[in-house]
Amino acid sequence: MDEDHFLHLTDVGRKVAEKIYERHCFFTEQLIAAGVDPETAEVDACRIEHVISNESFERLKEAAFRNQENEISALSKEIKDKPTE
């Protein structure tokens, strides 16, 4: 920390911080989407982001992405199949 109370990270430190922040955002969004109130989602995301393995996190991201793709595909089909007036 410098005299102005700013943290200066090394390149490695920055990569670690970015990885943790990505996890935090992902888990916060997923928990809120699941119906958890935002305040609780933030607290829980802070806990999860530090303990989950890289493998588990990557698989969860992939599963969430597949879910989004499936939802978009279903909505697209629904729009195409809707009779025009």
TrEMBL record:
InterPro entries, alphabetized: DtxR_MntR_Metal-Reg, Fe_dep_repressor, Fe_dep_repressor_sf
Domain (Iron dependent repressor metal binding and dimerisation): residue spans on this chain: 10-62
GO MF: protein dimerization activity; transition metal ion binding
Domain of life of the source: Bacteria
Protein's UniProt name: Manganese transport regulator MntR
Native source species: Faecalicatena contorta
